[in-house]
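Q: I'm building a small set of examples for a reading group on sequence design. Run inverse folding on the following structure and report the sequence directly after it, with nothing in between.
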């Protein structure tokens, strides 16, 4: 059997319990009532509230399930009526004993309590264990109900038939009274438990309870003990404070506080998101400092970051897994813990290094193959570095090639574009014409004939196309890039009038020293020409005309060479 007792003005009550809020609005106990909101609140806390608001002692039969949850919203109703409705909704009944005591029991036990007479209240003599009295009365008079009183377990209430209650009075009147005094020192239950563990209380009984520390013993020993207790309290300086984290989860905060509480006490204030921390001043300060530090670490911040030339998708991939949320496009907003945001900013700062700009000079020329052989140059692979070019001739071959280009006799310069490219980007230049081609759509009929559906024009680029892509600057300032060169021309026309296009294309991945050059070759073109000459009129005569005619056949072979020079530009 349980009991609760107390009194608190209704207007000042705000009870928060079991992950829910129980609120009362009003002042005192107005006739018009108040608003009572219960959300998943344990029954024992509802009973406690009733006891404190009415000032009645409430005895609870052991058959009442005090941990059952109550959900209700009662408007304009006083506490008496509201409590009666809650009882009925949970299958409970109650009996008012006098004006200051209420007995709550399950409905199936109503006959036992409603038929009982006036209860008998017994104060157990000092030196005798109340539990022993309860066990003795239950054994001798089994039909009686014996319950510990509210707030003081030494006060017992005996309920039953009048004759048996009288027998209990007679039996307990013979109990001896031991000459011991009892003093209740007002303090919190946590401080009382610590005093029980740390103070010297030989020859006395100490008991910690929500009401404070109960001291039982002879008068002289109690006086001596109280002096030592006062000195202990002065040195301990017990304090209490409510800690409400802003970001830290309450369960995590409670677990962290439990590991370092020392002599302190930590309690969860019923799902309100707050903790009650109490203990000696030194322990209290230490616990709160740790909890506040943990709360700061959990606090989420927002910070904007300008990406500059960095692509948003690259920035998002870079900070993935760092514990931050990313929003925005060219201007990213990072959300997360301060430490995680700082880490993300540091990563972005490292990879957002300003991209460098590269100047690529291209010289594309068509050389006579015979002239190259004369120079001793045989480009049997796609690209040659500056040092490799020197092996073709005793002197520096690159200036010789450039001079041949400039002379224009055995070489024809096709294009000399200069391109500026930012790292990671590409540049393209096209020199030539766009030639229209007719593209016809046809279909095959069942008879096997071809049916022309429609004709569309398709434009084809003919000329010189140079593309530089995947430009990157290495740590030693050398430049890595991909070069694509294409040379195309119309060499003939088909019988249908369509142009016949010849295309020569080369693609290489190069690494060039800053300011250095690379020579690319290997695009060959072989042509066979025949020229005929004759003397007018004589050359047309049969027989003798053959002496007035001549035929000259020439075979020509050319190679397209591209000189690539790359250098970093200063901005």
């Amino acid at each position: 059997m349980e009991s609760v007792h107390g009194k608190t003005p209704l207007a000042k009550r705000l009870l928060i319990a079991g992950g829910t809020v129980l609120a009362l609005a009003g002042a005192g106990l107005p006739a018009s009532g108040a608003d009572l909101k219960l959300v998943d609140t344990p029954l024992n806390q509802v009973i406690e509230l009733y006891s404190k608001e009415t000032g009645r002692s409430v005895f609870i039969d052991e058959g009442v399930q005090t941990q059952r949850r109550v959900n209700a919203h009662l408007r304009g109703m006083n506490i008496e009526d509201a409590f009666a409705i809650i009882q009925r909704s949970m299958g409970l009944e109650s009996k008012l004993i006098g004006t200051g005591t209420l007995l709550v029991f399950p409905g199936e036990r109503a006959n036992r309590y409603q038929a009982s007479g006036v209860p008998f209240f017994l104060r157990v003599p000092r030196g005798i264990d109340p539990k022993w009295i309860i066990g003795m009365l239950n054994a001798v008079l089994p039909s009686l109900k014996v319950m510990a009183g509210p707030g003081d377990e030494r006060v017992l209430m005996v309920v039953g038939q009048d004759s048996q209650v009288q027998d209990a009075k007679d039996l307990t009147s013979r109990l001896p009274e031991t000459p011991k005094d009892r003093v209740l020192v007002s303090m919190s239950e946590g401080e009382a438990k610590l005093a029980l563990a740390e103070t010297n209380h030989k020859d006395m009984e100490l008991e910690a309870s929500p009401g404070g520390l109960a001291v039982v013993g002879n008068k002289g020993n109690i006086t001596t003990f109280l002096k030592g207790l006062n000195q202990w309290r002065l040195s301990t300086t017990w304090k209490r404070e409510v800690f409400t984290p802003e970001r830290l989860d309450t369960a995590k905060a409670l677990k962290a506080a439990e590991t370092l509480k020392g002599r302190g006490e930590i309690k969860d204030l019923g799902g309100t998101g707050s903790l009650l921390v109490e203990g000696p001043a030194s322990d209290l300060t230490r616990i709160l400092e740790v909890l506040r530090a943990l709360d700061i670490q959990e606090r989420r911040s927002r910070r904007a970051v300008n990406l500059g030339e960095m692509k948003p998708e690259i920035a998002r991939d870079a900070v993935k897994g760092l514990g931050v949320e990313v929003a925005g496009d060219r201007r990213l907003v990072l959300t997360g813990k301060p430490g995680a945001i700082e880490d993300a900013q540091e990563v972005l700062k490292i990879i957002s290094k300003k991209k460098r700009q590269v100047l690529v000079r291209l010289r594309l020329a068509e050389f006579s193959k015979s002239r190259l052989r004369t120079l001793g140059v045989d480009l049997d692979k796609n690209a040659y570095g500056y040092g490799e070019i020197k092996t073709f001739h005793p002197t520096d071959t690159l200036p010789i090639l450039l001079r041949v280009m400039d002379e224009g006799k055995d070489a024809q310069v096709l294009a000399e574009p200069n391109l500026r490219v930012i790292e990671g980007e590409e540049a393209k230049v096209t020199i030539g014409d766009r030639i229209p081609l007719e593209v016809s759509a046809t279909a095959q009929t069942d008879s096997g004939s071809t049916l022309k559906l429609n004709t569309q024009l398709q434009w084809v680029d003919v000329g010189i196309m140079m593309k530089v892509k995947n430009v990157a600057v290495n740590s030693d300032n050398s430049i890595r890039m991909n070069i694509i060169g294409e040379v195309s021309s119309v060499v003939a026309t088909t019988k249908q009038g369509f142009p016949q296009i010849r295309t020569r294309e080369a693609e290489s991945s190069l690494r060039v020293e800053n300011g250095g050059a690379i020579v690319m070759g290997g695009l060959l073109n072989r042509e066979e020409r025949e020229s005929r000459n004759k003397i007018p009129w004589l050359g047309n005569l049969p027989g003798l005309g053959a002496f007035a005619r001549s035929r000259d056949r020439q075979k020509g072979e050319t190679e397209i060479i591209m000189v690539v020079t790359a250098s970093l530009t200063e901005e």
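The longest strand covers residues 450-473.
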